[in-house]
From TrEMBL:
Matches recorded under InterPro entries: Class_I_gatase-like, DJ-1/PfpI, INH-QAR
Residue stretches making up the DJ-1/PfpI domain: 11-184
Source species of the chain: Chryseobacterium rhizosphaerae
A Pfam family this chain is assigned to: DJ-1_PfpI
Record-given protein name: DJ-1/PfpI family protein
CDD domains referenced in this protein's UniProt entry, alphabetically: GATase1_PfpI_2 (cd03139)
Superkingdom, taxonomy of origin: Bacteria
Length: 210
């Protein structure tokens, strides 16, 4: 298969936390995993939690044991931040411990050049960090107004599946994370890799981008 030459393996860290939305997490994760099967060595994907203790996915349907904690994980080239339900998002915005540990870890890496990729309400989780300031951003349609109210220095985009601002990628609701992940595979490796993954997924891809 002809593809764009990839210089080195990209470390892709998927943040997990209590009540994380399963498809927000697993949709993009599976895209990158499939890409790594097609193009071996392209991506090193792993989950990261505050600790190695199990976290519970939305509605407590399953427990997830992170591959690494914040202190032991490999340095990420990209951090994927899945969302959670809106009520839970608002609780996390007021959770000083979550802000000062998990989100400070994200901010520190962002300040050192790591790409931040939020899925659905994952962008809303960053509202107290300053990471979103001066960027075009989006989120699930249910939280667009709240995202705008909490991020007055940002330009909230409506009616798009995802927004690429180079170091920051934000997406609309849930399945838009799959679309943005496919888009990033195309950006890194070309359309042929995307077409192969879409065929494997039997997926109807969305393409609206700001």
């Amino acid at each position: 298969m002809k593809h764009v030459q990839h210089i080195k393996t990209m470390n892709v860290a998927f943040l997990v936390y209590n009540q994380v939305e399963v498809l927000d997490l697993n949709g993009p994760l599976d895209v990158f995993v499939k890409a790594n099967v097609i193009l071996p060595g392209s991506y090193h994907c792993y989950t990261v939690g505050k600790t190695r203790d199990a976290v519970y996915a939305e509605a407590n349907t399953m427990a997830i044991v992170p591959t690494y904690d914040l202190q032991t994980c490999p340095k990420p080239d990209m951090i994927v931040i899945p969302g959670t339900n809106p009520d839970q998002v608002m609780q996390y915005l007021k959770d000083d411990d979550f802000q000062n540990t998990v989100l400070n870890w994200v901010k520190d890496h962002c300040n050192n050049g790591t790409v931040i990729f939020t899925v659905c309400t994952g962008s809303m989780l960053l509202s107290e960090t300053g990471i979103l300031d001066h960027y075009d951003i989006t989120t699930h349609s249910m939280l667009l107004d709240a995202l705008e109210q909490h991020n007055t220095e940002s330009n909230v985009k409506r009616g798009v599946r995802f927004v690429d601002q180079e170091q920051l990628i934000t997406t609309a609701g849930i399945t838009a994370g799959i679309d943005a992940a496919l888009y990033l595979i195309g950006k890194h490796h070309g359309q042929e890799a995307v077409d192969t993954i879409v065929q494997l997924f039997e997926y109807q891809q969305g393409s609206s981008i700001a």
